[in-house]
Amino acid sequence: MKSKRRSSESMANNSDPPSPLGHNIIKDILLRLPIKSIKRFESVSKAWYLLFNSHDFISNHFRRSSSGPSLLIRRFHNPTGSNFSIILMDNRTSIPREIKIPFLGSLIRYPKIIESCNGIICLDISPCYASAFVLWNISTRQFIGLPRPRINDAHKPIWMVATGFGYSRESNDFKLVRVVNFHCNEDDSLVVRAEVYSWRTGSWMLLDGRMIEERMGSCVIPEGQQAVIVDGSMHWVANGVGKLANHKYIVSFEMGNEEFRRIKILDYLSSEICVKVVGFKESLALALYPALSVYPGYGRPINRMELWTLDKDYASDVDGNCWTKLHTIDLNSSGLNPIGVHNDSELLVKRMEAHCVSLSFFDPDNKGIKTLPICSSDYTCEFYSYVDSLVPVANAGYLEVEKTRESEIY
Fold it and tell me: How far apart are CA 377 and CA 356, in angstroms?
């Protein structure tokens, strides 16, 4: 009888639910798994499915992944303008692999990448004027087409469109910004309108036109410029128009309160200096280098690059003295062309050689360079940071979008 009693007690103990400590250990193990394994294990039980799709698990898994971002490369054959591809270069192995776009067959042209943020890639799939978008998570293979923007060319011809995509911690929301320049009026005044897509609501909202005119001024943000996100704001370099002609300044869009503002840049800049806004060590920065060096092989080679960072108290500065020179980098000896910043601390520099394009990660602090072969010299490459993420492409709020769309306006 005693042996039977012990046996039944043992079985009862084995059927008891795991202790809180056991739950934490299992969760810690699961957080270390790659996303491919996590998606497979969703079918193990309802409890695991709910765990993997919980905000807490998604956030903690992302924190582990974000410590070592990979490199996302969009490239195409420059002479023919064809043979497009998207390549992901793993941060640990540096082995490139081509990423197939699952919905490519339904597109008119190969999409542009607006930005990669927290594992979500925002693609521009429109023929022109950035008027159709898709959110795509490579890791989970989810994608969703966004509603059409509200600003169109029904009443005025569009001249130029600038875009930006980022994540707002303040509102826990991904936001897509679309700034539209229309052709000038007879008095040469520039008409600028802007709208914002919210991931949480799944809809577009027009921004106040008076606020845009007052905060941005009369300017154009050149197309193809990647918005740089620092401290919850998007940033572009803009060219002044009209009274602000021959002036360059930074247009900043704060994702929290959805307002624009201008940031003055260095006064001594001339047309011979190329300005690129970048994010460097959690600060907004400017990379300055000779304009003739933008297209390697034409004009004189790069001789140096200056890296300036924006002071934290710049809001109180009205004279444009809010920039501090951080580095002066001699690039002439190695023939490198700066193109951006990776992992917030390494400059991405490109070397054009006879038969290939090499990408280098340059640390301006210790002058260290790590070079990777990318593609032949016939290809043009665009670079983005990418991290694996379980973040869904559609928020639950997307399902609550009003069925009746408001009339399109400009």
Answer: 4
207-264 confidence digits (pLDDT tens): 998 899 889 888 899 888 899 999 999 999 998 887 777 788 999 999 999 999 999 8
Q: From CA 124, how far away is CA 147, in angstroms rounded? A: 12
Rounded to whole angstroms, how far apart are CA atoms 376 and 353? 9
The residue ranges of the chain whose pLDDT is under 50 are 1-15, 292-302, 316-318, 333, 396-410
Distances (CA, A) of 102 to 34, 99, 204: 21, 9, 25
Cα(202)–Cα(205) distance, integer angstroms: 10
CA–CA separation, 240 vs 220, rounded Å? Answer: 6
Q: What is the DSSP letter of 227?
A: P
Radius of gyration of the chain from Cα atoms?
25
Which residues, in sequence order, are CB contacts of 304 under 8 Å at separation 6+? 289, 328, 329, 330, 331, 332
Residues 6+ apart with CB under 8 A from 252: 233, 234, 235, 260, 261, 262, 263
Rounded to the nearest angstrom, the gap between the alpha carbon of residue 266 and the centroid of all alpha carbons in its chain is: 25
Contact yes or no for 138/88 (Cβ under 8 A): yes
Contacts of 166 (CB under 8 A, 6+ apart): 115, 117, 174, 175, 227, 229, 234, 255
Rounded to the nearest 10°, the torsion over CA 7, 12, 15, 17 is: -140
